[in-house]
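Ferritin, pasting as requested.
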Amino acid sequence: MTSVVAPAKDQPTSQQEGRFKESFPGVSTLPLDEVKARRYGETEKGEVNRGTFVRVDYSGDLEQAVNGQIDYDWSVGYALLAMAAYFDRDTVSLPGIAKYFRALNDRAWSDANRMMRFQNMRGGKVRVGAVAMPDSDYFSPEKGDALYAFEVALALEKLRMDRLKALHSLADATDDFQAQDFIESEMSVQAGLVKELGDRACELKRVGTGHGVFHFDERIDSL
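Structure tokens follow.
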């Protein structure tokens, strides 16, 4: 720790071109050596749009993986939107299921936006990649369309859980406790969604592909 004596009034102190000076008004003790060694708060002139002011111990591998998660969440949302459009067709006409998948689409895109805010908060750079084109039809001769679509949605959300676990492992490897806390909160919510979709798939498997799907659609529309 470096002892800092408050300067006289005729010797004003400030940050000059982003670099710390040796003393600060009203501060008696400050670890200046450590601050300068880590270059906290230091930016060069003209680097406002090129560098980052806020990055602290944020690994490049984790930054890249978060960008991959952002792309995955956008792709999941796109697939769920395609499912909603399928069930809204006049030849399918299951409006309750269409409404449910639209809500899941909103949720997936909220997930992506939350990941983007986290990336910016940590001083990373968001790089949005291409979004995969989803299927347009969701029908299986053995399972029908409702059960098949819910099983696809369940698989997508279970894969998201696996990806979050991989992100957590990266954060753990670099002792990034803030990232671990953020990812753990995401995993807690994700586990609830996986359970919900698993319950829906189980219900549809029980009712089969006939009249029971119509009643399932009415019930899910009222939730």
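Note for the archive: The chain has two domains: 1-51, 60-221.
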